[in-house]
Amino acid sequence: MQCWRALRDRLGETAFYLLLLLATWCGVQSLTRLAQLLNVAGTASWLPLDLVRSLGLGVLYDVSAGVFFCLLPLLYLLVPQHFLSARAHRMGLAALTFLLNVFMVFCAIALYLYWAEFHTNFSFIAVDYLVYTHEMIGTIFQSFHMGLIIPAILVLAGLITWGQSRFLPRDYTFAPRCSRPPSYFRWASSH
C-alpha cells in the first residue's frame, strides 16, 4: 500500500487515477487474451517466441486502445472545479468510472464469446451484428444466457469500480496548488 501512496504522491492524484484506469484496461484485456489462448490450447503454438510475439503485440494494442479508454475521464477531469462542488465532481467521476468499467467488462466478455464461437477476434462477421442488428440480437438472446451475463457484467464492473473508488482524485488539478497566488495577482490587488 505504501508503494501506491508513494506513486500517487509523485504523479499527483489525477495522473495516478488515469494511469490506474489504463492499467485496469490493459489487465482485463490481457486476462481475456490469456483466456482465449487457453480456449484454443490444443491448436495454439506454444513456442516461446510465438507467445512473446502474440502477447507483446496484444499488450501494444491494449495500451493504444486504453489511451482512448482514458480520454473521456481526462476530458471530465479538465472541467474546472468551480463549476461543481467537490462532492458532485467525485460522484460524477465515480459514475463515469462505473460506466467505463461496464463497457470494459462487456467488451472482454463479448470478445471471449465471439472467440469461442468463431476462433478469431472481431472481424467481418462482426459487421453482420451492426448491419442486421435486430436479427443478431435475437440470435444472441437465444444462444446465450443473457439473464446471467448482463448481471455478471454489472457486478464485475461494480467490483472493479469499488476497488478503484479509493483512488478517485479529490483534487482535480493537474498541477500542484500554489500556497500563495502568483505575483501578478498580488500586483493587481495592490493597485
Separation, N- and C-terminal Cα atoms: 49 Å
Helix-strand category: mainly alpha
Tally of DSSP helical segments = 9
Principal-axis shape = globular
Q: Which parts are unreliable, with pLDDT below 50 for 5 consecutive residues or more?
A: 175-182, 184-189
What can be said about the biggest beta sheet? none
Number of strands: 0
Can you walk me through this structure?
The protein has 191 residues and is mostly helical. It has one domain. α2 runs parallel beside α5, α5 packs across α8 and α6 packs across α7. The C terminus is likely disordered.
Essential attributes:
disordered C terminus; 191 residues; 0% strand; 9 helices; mainly alpha; globular; single chain
Secondary-structure topology with pairs:
Blueprint: H1 2-11, H2 13-39, H3 48-69, H4 71-77, H5 86-118, H6 124-131, H7 133-143, H8 146-165, H9 183-190
Quick structural gist:
Helix 1 (2-11) crosses helix 2 (13-39), helix 5 (86-118) packs across helix 8 and helix 6 crosses helix 7 (133-143). The chain is 76% helix and 0% strand.
